[in-house]
């Protein structure tokens, strides 16, 4: 039966969180389209965790478990997905819109002479067909897109779709696929871990960001402390990154990362259109700024007008109480 | 060695987006178009490879309306040697774009193709990957750092707190992310020199669209936002609201 494939992303033998969201959304769409969802797990030594996906309501899981895939780069994954999608005659293939997921969706879709509908935030099933809504111009506008041929490839923005638990006994099917030698031409030769393991900004549930009003890099301990008190990660505005106060991988905005956390706390960020574009899809936005007319307050759910150097220490104290 | 860099013109990131009369594309009236910032970084990487190696030619390729000549000149001023403008006035999907680029690039037979990780208008992040697949060469995505030596590129990209090093022999396609490299600022002399460099206009190849835009709309304005209070005294109330009303803590 032509259905929906949900591609998962595995890191060190556990699923990245966005995988569960993709599986769960595939199950919901399959129900609405009157078809079935199949989760796909590809890697080396991944067979053991495949069954766990039943927790998210998927009845079928296809596993490609091959020692060749230990630390393999993206192309062999695309070759595996191509063979699975052909064998299953899939109508839709869903990916998590992580950096890897977007690259993988592009090279997989291209093998079918298609492009993927990238980084979608809404799915609509009308008359047995899927249409997708996706932010463009980093969220300054929303586009509704319809794929014109099948199979169609779609990536789903992390943190947007619910990973709904619906315990199901999943049938795991092991599939053998073949890989071309060419798929291994680009190789991962080294993986360096950061000293502190933090989720990527695009997957974080809580983000605390600092802007130019923090006055200097030496004051970002306040941002880091609040982030850690709330169990989140820290981000930064473009002005701060351009000034060299913070690393580029913390930048939120149109030329940085586009994020959709549960809670976004903007500290001393005025709210340039560039920045708003990257964070306005956050579920709840809190702004702390001493200028009551700052544009950031127009997108904030809750605001405090005040000096960050007075407000942040009080927030850190209050945040620390949350654990106890 | 020949490097092709793909560049796209996009609205400046400070642009306030307005929806056009067709409700499918933006109203381009008054919009200032610039080279997409990630593509500009890709040009910078290419120019640095040229500066550190002998006999490197850089060809900048853009698909877009005739005024994309402006961003090609920008790339030429940065140090690209010549440009190719694939003329196309209609907006088209990533596959159609990649197909046209691939057809033009195949004729050049480059060793290395660079592009930005995404264009900051449609935010698709698709063209590089599709291009690599159509050119039948490996694709390295989202490289924050890139080096070239002995017919091999080494790229680094950071993902969820881990830094991956990826190596590949040429030919290949690499998409460029922000990293330690910053795009140079063009001097007046380099801008003047770029005017004399060659830009060839070619026609886009047509292929069937794989997706269509049904609608473009602005996001709903936020309603119900409020100022909780002033100064540190408002913090306790804020946390109460985050816990009990917003339920995010």
UniProtKB/TrEMBL annotation, chain A:
Give the highest taxon in the source lineage.
Bacteria
Q: Which PROSITE patterns match?
A: ETF_ALPHA (PS00696)
Task: Give the co-factor note.
Answer: Binds 1 FAD per dimer.
Electron transfer flavoprotein alpha/beta-subunit N-terminal domain segment(s): 4-195
Transmembrane ranges, per UniProt, are: none
Named cofactor requirement(s): FAD
Gene Ontology biological process terms from the UniProt entry: fatty acid beta-oxidation using acyl-CoA dehydrogenase
UniProt keyword Transport, yes or no: yes
Instruction: Kindly state which keywords UniProt assigns to this record, in alphabetical order.
Output: Electron transport, FAD, Flavoprotein, Transport
Please name the CDD domains in this protein's record: ETF_alpha (cd01715)
Q: Does Flavoprotein appear among the keywords? A: yes
Binding positions (FAD)? 212, 237-238, 251-255, 289
Task: Name a GO molecular-function annotation.
Answer: electron transfer activity
Protein family according to the UniProt entry: Belongs to the ETF alpha-subunit/FixB family.
Question: What is the recorded function of this protein according to its Swiss-Prot or TrEMBL entry?
Answer: The electron transfer flavoprotein serves as a specific electron acceptor for other dehydrogenases. It transfers the electrons to the main respiratory chain via ETF-ubiquinone oxidoreductase (ETF dehydrogenase).
Protein name stated in the entry: Electron transfer flavoprotein subunit alpha
Task: Report the source organism.
Answer: Uabimicrobium amorphum
TrEMBL record, chain B:
What are the TM regions of this chain, as residue ranges? none
GO MF terms, alphabetically ordered: electron transfer activity
According to the entry, every stretch annotated as the Electron transfer flavoprotein alpha/beta-subunit N-terminal domain falls at 23-211
Annotated keywords: Electron transport, Transport
Question: What InterPro entries does the record point to?
Answer: ETF_a/b_N, ETF_b, ETF_beta_N, Rossmann-like_a/b/a_fold
* The keyword Transport appears for this protein: yes
Keyword DNA-binding listed: no
Q: Spell out the family assignment given in the record's similarity comment.
A: Belongs to the ETF beta-subunit/FixA family.
Indicate what this protein is called per its UniProt record.
Electron transfer flavoprotein subunit beta
